[in-house]
Amino acid sequence: MSDSNMMCDLETGMCGVAGEDTMQVVDLNEIKKKITLYYVTDPICSHCWALEPVLNRFIQEYGHYFDVTTVMGGLLPSWKGFSDGGNGIHKPVDVAEHWREVGEHSRMPIDGSLWHTNPILSSFPPSRVFKVIQDKHTGRAEEYLRSAREAVFVSNLNIGEEEVLISIVDRLGLDGRRIVEEAALDSAQELLDADFQLAARLGVRGFPSLIMVNEENKGVKVAGARPLATYIEALQQITAQEITPKEKPHLSQLIKDGHKLFSKEIEEMYGLAEDKVEAFIDSELPADAYRVQHIMNELYVEKIG
Questions:
Q1: What whole-number distance in Å separates Cα of residue 83 and Cα of residue 101?
Q2: Does the pLDDT at position 276 exceed 80?
């Protein structure tokens, strides 16, 4: 400790900085500025599903710098007047080919054949269920969203249908029928409309979009599914301090009851090559508690029982 005003004072009985007050209030709590990460998405957004490995790693490693707020964007109100010319989508069957391309490129499994046999008519029903759970059951909405995505992309289920949504919510240990009934009320649509208004204020024009906003209301928007480095760079731009990642969680902490964890997610989290994943699983997890399976030529691991 060095200061040009240092002195030893016989009256105060202290060697230190001249003029130091006799009594002071000291707060040793670390002060951290918190950033809000707005994740604007939709339950049937294929690029959002493709982003899951990167987004999960970003949250696991850098989530101590921000709070996540998931916002529904309203991808498909209905097919009446809907057109996505950029992806060649004008009718339900057109989605199947787009999803196939996204699945092959990202290696997050996507079936997509339901667009030929039982197409989703609107993404609003599963979005309203999300809003009801987010409003009434703190901390469960993201779990529901993951379940809904596994259902539609991997299991090829129409998550626009009430019975499918009820089953998804029931498996979370919540009252599926009651929540789905609440999601059909005007109050649920009002919650969803509030998300649409927020997304518009944030300048969102497509999904996924991540907007990071600091306490000075300065932010950075990242549109589309991007590499991890892009999100780290965006976070650093609005953070005064040098950011550092937390230690990665153990593999067992990533596997949730009733969910599949895919090879691409493990590769991204731990920086592994695809051909090293199975050996990594064997070394990290007890054989009697987990099983490795394959679907659509992709490996996944899940809990037994």
A1: 18
A2: yes
